[in-house]
Amino acid sequence: MVLTKAFPILERLLQNTKLFHTSRTSKEYDGPGKTTVDIINKQDNVETHNRFLITKCLPVGFKLNDNSLLLGPIVIFDGTILSWNISSAKDINEATLSLFTIVHPALDLIVLGLETNYKYNRVLEIKKVLLKYNIRSEILPVRQACGVYNFLVSDGRYVAAGLIPPLPDKTNLYCRLQQLPTKKRKLIDK
């Protein structure tokens, strides 16, 4: 009481806070079985400053900056990650690149990360498909493509990446251990 009498402004604020209240109103059905459609480009991304970055390329998939592990080939753009239904760069064609052609607004650049080095003719075939739709692209080995994608996203560019996990490295200790022949041990009874 003494505090409110000494500070009339505080007293008015306390009186006005009694007038505010919140209530939840819902105009639509939110029960099970409701069909919803999300347009990816229209979603409000609350964490626009926290974009997905690729921290590690593994033969099984990719590790992101939020410590999630994504298995298999992926397409990543503007805070959205999709599974890409291909097994290698040999499967990349106009149909598998069609996702990049319908994204609106148009992408600044597409970074394609291939699992291994391919001959220049194969890279040209992929570039021709993308040029048909006026899409700029950069086609690199996947480890380099992840770095380029991270750099461009950090720079604030509107880019997408199609990434295929790298082939297992034969110099990796784990791979060498799997290839060692198993020796049968002889048990000697004494």
Automatic annotation (TrEMBL):
Pfam family, one: DUF498
GO BP term, example: mitochondrial respiratory chain complex I assembly
InterPro entries membership: MTH938-like_sf (IPR036748), NDUFAF3/AAMDC (IPR007523)
Gene3D superfamilies in the record: MTH938-like (3.40.1230.10)
This protein's GO CC annotations: mitochondrial inner membrane
PANTHER family: NADH DEHYDROGENASE [UBIQUINONE] 1 ALPHA SUBCOMPLEX ASSEMBLY FACTOR 3, NUCLEAR PROTEIN E3-3
Protein name as it appears in the record: NADH dehydrogenase [ubiquinone] 1 alpha subcomplex assembly factor 3
Organism field: Bombus terrestris
